[in-house]
């Protein structure tokens, strides 16, 4: 199948806003590149500074309504910034080029102390660590995006042994798989994209997860669930509208990890979830925020 890329010229200030708008408009993945080959000298450790002139690229399936996407992004951008986008260009991309580009970029990566995500074509650098084999695919969640990274680092740093977990917006299944590999008893994965459910199922098999440890559902089919830990890396708007649903699935004393939130959105989401949870201090990477909370017991 062919794919289409939408390239948008931006500056460093607006690149992440455009990334979010492209994801909201249905992009399967978003990348950012220097538009002018400007080297970045000695960026601060742990930060990914953006170039003055940045090309933000969204990847869409070949049959996507690109004219509709362009109109949606242009309108959303104008309503936030009161300015117009400089330029948007589309490019047809064949499958093999896309896969090749991913393979070149994708390397084993460690999250926290003991959790590694490794592509299948490379040996795990630490065979005795907690290794998850995951190849980049169509479903979001290869670990490289800060929103996923924040959740993986949280999982690495917190006890999950024997917990019942929900991975809401499971994408590739990466967070649920990490929880299971770290000792969780059972994971319910939910996603409104059928491709994500297929990807999660395939990735679970590749990682030797027993069939009865992971149950996958479309949101409307998910049975009544009570979990000890809710992981939800979806964007701010769904996190707000789904708040009662997500909160209702967490047992008293259980925990919630919310990601996919820009710093400007963190307060409103924290306030909303404070109705059910005692919210802890946020963590931040590259302008993305992860919020965590513990469900009230009364
Ligand atoms: C940002 S990706 C996160 C994937 C993976 N959990 C990770 O952490 O990398 C968000 C996922 O949530 C799904 N999603 C978005 N809105 C949703 C909704 N209202 N209900 C269920 N899934 C949703 C998307 O299809 C996508 O797979």
**Can you summarize the main beta sheet?**
8 strands, mixed
Structural class, by secondary structure, is alpha/beta
CA-based shape: globular
Give me the CATH architecture of the domain at 139-295, please.
3-Layer(aba) Sandwich
- What ligand molecules are bound, each kind once? S-adenosylmethionine
Work out the number of β strands.
Answer: 15
What's the helix-strand series? EHEEHEHEEEHEHEHEEHHEHEEE
Q: CATH topology of the domain at 139-295, which one?
A: Rossmann fold
User: What proportion of the residues form beta strands (DSSP E)?
Assistant: 25-35%
Q: What do the pLDDT scores average to?
A: 87
Radius of gyration: 19 Å
Name the helicity range. 25-40%
CATH superfamily name of the domain at 139-295?
Vaccinia Virus protein VP39
Description:
Belongs to the methyltransferase superfamily. PrmA family. It catalyses: L-lysyl-[protein] + 3 S-adenosyl-L-methionine = N(6),N(6),N(6)-trimethyl-L-lysyl-[protein] + 3 S-adenosyl-L-homocysteine + 3 H(+). Methylates ribosomal protein L11. Residues 28-49 are annotated as: Disordered. By secondary structure, the chain is of the alpha/beta class. The chain has a domain at 139-295: Vaccinia Virus protein VP39 (Rossmann fold, 3-Layer(aba) Sandwich), CATH 3.40.50.150. Helix content is 31%, strand content 30%. It has helices spanning 12-24, 66-81, 95-105, 146-157, 174-181, 194-206, 236-241, 243-248, 266-273, and strands spanning 3-11, 29-34, 53-61, 88-93, 109-111, 115-118, 130-133, 164-168, 186-190, 214-217, 227-233, 250-262, 277-279, 283-285, 288-295. The strands form three sheets. Strands 8, 9, 10, 11, 12, 13, 14 and 15 form an eight-stranded mixed sheet that branches. Helix 1 packs across helix 2 (66-81) and helix 4 (146-157) packs parallel to helix 5 (174-181).
């Amino acid at each position: 199948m062919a794919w289409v890329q939408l390239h948008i010229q931006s500056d460093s200030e607006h690149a992440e806003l455009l990334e979010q708008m492209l994801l909201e408009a249905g992009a399967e993945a978003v990348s950012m590149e220097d538009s002018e080959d400007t080297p970045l000298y000695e960026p601060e450790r742990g930060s990914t500074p953006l170039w003055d002139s940045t090309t933000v690229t969204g990847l869409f399936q070949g049959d996507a309504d690109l004219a509709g996407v362009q109109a949606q992004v242009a309108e959303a951008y104008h309503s936030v910034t009161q300015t117009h986008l400089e330029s948007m260009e589309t490019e047809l991309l064949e499958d093999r080029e896309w896969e090749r580009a991913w393979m070149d970029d994708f390397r084993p990566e460690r999250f926290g102390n003991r959790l590694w995500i490794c592509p299948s074509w490379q040996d795990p650098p630490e065979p005795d660590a907690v290794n998850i084999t995951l190849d980049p695919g169509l479903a979001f969640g290869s670990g490289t995006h800060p929103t996923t990274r924040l959740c993986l680092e949280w999982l690495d740093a917190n006890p999950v042994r024997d917990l019942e977990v929900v991975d809401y917006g499971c994408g590739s299944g990466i967070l649920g798989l990490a929880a299971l590999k770290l000792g969780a008893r059972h994971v319910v994965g939910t996603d409104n994209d059928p491709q994500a459910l297929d990807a999660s199922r395939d990735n679970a098999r590749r990682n030797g997860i027993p069939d009865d440890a992971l149950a996958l559902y479309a949101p409307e089919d998910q049975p009544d669930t009570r979990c000890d830990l809710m992981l939800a890396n979806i964007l701010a708007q769904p996190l707000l509208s789904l708040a009662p649903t997500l909160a209702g699935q967490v047992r008293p004393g259980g925990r919630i990890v919310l990601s996919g939130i820009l710093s400007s959105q963190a307060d409103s989401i924290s306030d909303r979830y404070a109705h059910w949870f005692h919210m802890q201090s946020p963590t931040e990477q590259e302008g993305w925020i992860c919020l965590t909370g513990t469900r009230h017991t009364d």
